[in-house]
Amino acid sequence: xxxxxxxxxxxxxxxxxxxxxxxxxxxxxxxxxxxxxxxxxxxxxxxxxxxxxxxxxxxxxxxxxxxxxxxxxxxxxxxxxxxxxxxxxxxxxxxxxxxxxxxxxxxxxxxxxxxxxxxxxxxxxxxxxxxxxxxxxxxxxxxxxxxxxxxxxxxxxxxxxxxxxxxxxxxxxxxxxxxxxxxxxxxxxxxxxxxxxxxxxxxxxxxxxxxxxxxxxxxxxxxxxxxxxxxxxxxxxxxxxxxxxxxxxxxxxxxxxxxxxxxxxxxxxxxxxxxxxxxxxxxxxxxxxxxxxxxxxxxxxxxxxxxxxxxxxxxxxxxxxxxxxxxxxxxxxxxxxxxxxxxxxxxxxxxxxxxxxxxxxxxxxxxxxxxxxxxxxxxxxxxxxxxxxxxxxxxxxxxxxxxxxxxxxxxxxxxxxxx
Length: 419
Known about the structure:
Elements: H1 5-10, H2 13-61, H3 68-72, E1 81-83, E2 95-103, E3 109-121, E4 131-132, E5 159-160, E6 167-169, E7 173-179, E8 186-196, H4 203-223, E9 245-246, H5 255-264, E10 272-274, E11 284-290, H6 293-306, H7 313-318, E12 323-330, E13 337-338, E14 353-355, E15 358-365, E16 368-376, H8 380-383, H9 388-403, E17 406-409
Parallel strand pairs: 4-13
Antiparallel strand pairs: 1-2, 2-3, 3-8, 5-6, 6-7, 7-8, 9-10, 10-11, 11-12, 12-16, 14-15, 15-16, 15-17
């Protein structure tokens, strides 16, 4: 009778030990699998908790003005953030901000998102904002090519969001404005959102920044009783650039310059330009013009000969390049403007004049004050002395005509005569 004893006896000893070992392995694998599954579950729960805490921090620190999930999704996404204790958004103050730092491993911050909120009071006399009008577009020590300092600028120019009615943007910042209807305590709301990471901001993230800026402006306007119609975010946002091109090829905000030199000749005027798309409803646009090394080598010897105390050619090519920049500001951005951080001459709407290498004219665009400025580096302003007035007039006429501005106030001829 077969009671199973014979079967067990027939199994070779080595095979039995192998089967036992395999069973043990299977059990360990199963236990490990269960452990890994539990760890994965715990990890998911911890990630969800971390993200929920991050959302709460953004919601609180940024005053509920932006969607936390959209902030967390920037630059590929992150779950853990930290906020600066020194910044907190509040619509009870005219200026406030929040800064969101991305937290990596081991708990190190890398990159950040920031929101700056500005509420302009309806009464201009109650506005304490102060802004310097001067620029510094080139720096020899940070230039990519020290043999050609004016090949690229340190910054990009403001690009209009659509026609500019929504605001403008540059390489890593988007500024959105809500223009309030008359009768309230706030004239306009400005929301400025910035993303700073190791690499450049992508076009997709730039559009997200525009959406976040619009959301912040809209929510802040609602909280402050500002009745405003805020345009939608445009579908296309051309990439901002820093590389200057031949002035004759520049269009957009520098198109006026090409027409001027075509009609009156270039001579000692700049041969390079950095432009942005021109928006007829924009609150800020600029045109940067500069002289190439070849152009500087062509015009400098004559000036140096008549001005023995001037800098030598090498210094002009490196530390003191020849350039100029025009800017138009419309609306509340004209408030508190000063010529420079040193002399701080007021640049007021409704006036015209010059100070610290800056000339300005004023006008009224769609019922809002506007300032039109031209800054010229020293001693380039002296080199171009005879051409400054017609050049500035050409710029102002283009800027005001494009926007349909009226009541233009232009500096007197004596403002261009020099010291």
